UniProtKB/TrEMBL annotation, chains A, B:
Residues 207-307 form the Peptidase M20 dimerisation domain. Belongs to the peptidase M20 family. It holds the Pfam family M20_dimer. One of its GO terms (molecular function) is hydrolase activity. Keywords: Hydrolase. CDD domains: M20_bAS. This is N-carbamoyl-L-amino-acid hydrolase. PANTHER family: ALLANTOATE AMIDOHYDROLASE, ALLANTOATE DEIMINASE-RELATED. The gene is hyuC.
Amino acid sequence: RVDGSRLWATIHETAAFGGTPAGGINRLTLSREDGAVRDWFRDACLAAGLEVGTDALGTQFALRPGRDGARPPIAFGSHLDTQPTGGRFDGVLGVLAGLEVMRSLNDAGIETEAPLLLVNWTNEEGSRFAPAMMASAAHAGEFTTADILSRRDAAGISVAEALAEIGYAGEEPVGARAIGAFVELHIEQGPILEAEALTIGVVEGGQGIAWFDGTLTGFESHAGTTPMNRRRDALLGLAELALAAERIALAHAPSAVITIGEAVIAAPSRNVVPGTVRFTIDLRDPQAATLDAAEAELRAALGEIAGRRRLEAELTRIWRKAPVPFDPRLVDAVETAAGALGHPHRRIISGAGHDACNLAGIAPAAMIFVPCRDGISHNETESATPEDCTAGADVLLHTVLALANG
Amino acid sequence: RVDGSRLWATIHETAAFGGTPAGGINRLTLSREDGAVRDWFRDACLAAGLEVGTDALGTQFALRPGRDGARPPIAFGSHLDTQPTGGRFDGVLGVLAGLEVMRSLNDAGIETEAPLLLVNWTNEEGSRFAPAMMASAAHAGEFTTADILSRRDAAGISVAEALAEIGYAGEEPVGARAIGAFVELHIEQGPILEAEALTIGVVEGGQGIAWFDGTLTGFESHAGTTPMNRRRDALLGLAELALAAERIALAHAPSAVITIGEAVIAAPSRNVVPGTVRFTIDLRDPQAATLDAAEAELRAALGEIAGRRRLEAELTRIWRKAPVPFDPRLVDAVETAAGALGHPHRRIISGAGHDACNLAGIAPAAMIFVPCRDGISHNETESATPEDCTAGADVLLHTVLALANG
Ligand SMILES: NC(=O)NCCC(=O)O
Ligand SMILES: NC(=O)NCCC(=O)O
């Protein structure tokens, strides 16, 4: 069993890096705050006797050797970056529970057959740079390192520049480390476990995700002198699109969700009819076919709106992550561990994307969920109980031990 | 008659200050570019033998003494600041035509009875600081100088700081100069004169304007895990409000116009349901009663949307400018000048706000419009012909002479 109070203490100690007055964390990937928590994590891993390395995308690895150095390590972890309105558990729990697993094994003097590898993946959140789960995707060969290094944030700063800025452009080539299996502990970020009073979610897979960048272009004109029927107002076009997106998602209820999370008027002024609006769309569904159908419906709606309002429309799909099924043997291993520890559990599909979904492309992967209050995440009020965090870390420990010694 | 080619040359010479690649001007009030064009204007006035002064809000005055120093000067001018997507004529024409009037009188050796006063008003546009026509309103006693100095832009910089930054915090108390009458030449910024092939608009008054700051607050949540029916999406609330505003304006057709020119998601992220959106509303109508009715309808729509979507809504009216009728005697003087010069003309109501609307509160005021291409303004493609600009400057010259010698 892990030391739950030590785990809880590290969760709250690291919450100071980027901590917000409202009790959340604003720690965008590769920011100064992210650099500080990385330093903390490196030092903690070194203090636990782990061998620490960093790859060219800043992902941090901490290895605990096993008896059989020829076996690929059993890996686990998550991410320490957060949303701008992030909470204390999303990602953080998985990394610090992994650290707690290492510390607990040290305390108990347990040696494993396979080596163990704790990972802090760069830019899981996808808020500062797109796509989300960027570094694990590159590790799994979905993008080249050069491609990812060239991605830019809204201020025009590239991943390469941001890595250099905080000193986390590592030496290791991306994807060089073989991984025998990957297990990720995470808060559910949804309401199901809490509603059913369960402690553990045995995650069977992740739903599909499509991300889009869009632009609507009309014509800037005077707010006082341009009659309503002569306007080409890009914001009104976006307004119709946002409501159409909501209708499309509801038409594929209850599974599909569509979100316009960013929308920016290019040259905003109170007395100018908006001429250009740039926006993003996030579309998800567990079924690939529904993802495709909803995308077609979004494009049709955008075309109709743009035509009627005399706007030019552009919509580029910048990312598509197909639905991911996890490895049945690993899912069973998680379920067995939860059962052996006596934690009430159920199988569940992840609504969020996770690094484990990328690792699933190159190794057996699975996830462990614990409940969070009201299903709230990507919000500063995100909350989970110490008991549930401890239970999740225990399931992680037992799953990892079963895999490393099996 | 003025020297039309000299006027045209100054319009294009000053367009270099803040000139954009698309041929427009981005010269927000009290910006570095605004400071540079002010320096140019001061030097040009000094070279024309005028007595130059600046008030505490940065408004520039250039006096040409008359035979009767006891008479309050006949004032004219407009503004040299622009929108972020501004054109070459909005405001600029009125100031530079005023300079051309001074130069032409010098060339012809004409002395007037009353002194003449050319004015470049600070922050007519209202894009960087609210409200529009800020300095002329303070001159007319609608706001105190201290109040205006404390207004802040989106970056938090106050008017006082911005004035100091470009060295235009002048010595003169605001409103200290008596003004006998005010005449402003401006492009129409609407389509009427062009459509009717007329050269001069004899402006009878300006429509009413109300400006609002609004906030919609919902709850940030995860774009992948939050079911559509559990969301409190502030952007969807704004989308409905924008479309309701359009419907309300159309219900008061053809006169009322409503514009949401600024809309900002507080903590934007692709995979976060927007929790807070801040926005502005610009509402106009020539009738005060319609202004009030439309405001009530906007508030009702916002309340209904917020209630249904479980959002909190705030809407603050930060400015209300009642419809302004110009002085009948001055309007007649403009019409007489246009007729005497043989320019086809009609009476017209201004859809835009102008400094003359504020001056009307303390002195007889009137305006002269010339056509602009397709009625386009607050856009980099704003355009007017040299012939129309010259005609407008000639009408200004004749009106001013009639008033100063009458
Ligand atoms: N777990 C998580 O919130 N990941 C961020 C990527 C996503 O939007 O699903
Ligand atoms: N003339 C002009 O464009 N003034 C700006 C203030 C307004 O929006 O009417």
